[in-house]
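Hi support team,

I submitted a single chain yesterday and got back a structure, but I'm not sure I'm reading the token output correctly. Could someone confirm the output below corresponds to the sequence I sent? I've pasted both exactly as they appear in my results page.

Thanks,
R.
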Amino acid sequence: MNLFLQIITNKIFISTIAGYFLASLIKYIITIEKHHPNLHEFLMAGGMPSAHSATVSALSTALYLQEGFTDLFVITLVFSIIIIFDTMLRPKETRHSWKQVIVGILLGIIIGFLIKRI
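Hi R., thanks for writing in. Yes, this is the structure output for that exact sequence:
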């Protein structure tokens, strides 16, 4: 199996990428109501929901669902927690609130479960 096919059929990879892009898309749609955002705002940090939290939550969930409670899952979970807490400690303009982080985490978990069912 070639590398490209392995990547596009890997549910952990798909969940992780989907977590980021879906959270960013939701954030983009929410900001459309306030003003006319550009592509830079789609990719920037901050806002509802937290794309960082959604990404790492989707990664951890997908890994757990595929591999179970392994050492790799524990390592991924620890780094996910570090990233999530870091998003709340950044400078004020890119910091996430607890609400944004919780919604991002829930979105990531849901994505991990949905991709697993595909």
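A quick pointer for reading it: The first helix runs from residue 3 to 8. Let us know if anything else looks off.

Best,
Support desk
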